[in-house]
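Structure ticket #2291
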Amino acid sequence: MAKKTATKEVTKSKAAISAKQLADFMGVEQSKVKGLAAYCDAAQQVCNAFAESDLKESHVATMALLHCAVWLEQSKAKTVEQLSKLPLTVRYMVITAAEADKA
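Resolution: structure written out below.
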């Protein structure tokens, strides 16, 4: 009788950031945490759209989301034309995270 070998596949969840993480990253007061939640969601949508798939949780994906959320908050970008001006640093982080997911 052959023994079964257990294989464990680790499935990563979608990359996401919380308003508290963003507030800590930006160094803002905890009283402004609630106002940052919209930027967290928007950053996730922008980064996933740019990566052409859902980013999986990783350090690079988290950093891309944090930087994107800060940029969205500071630039107040809302139109497609404004969003197309996403900084190259953030684009690079998104691409790196997406490529790491495929590997």
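Closing remark: The chain has five helices and no strands.
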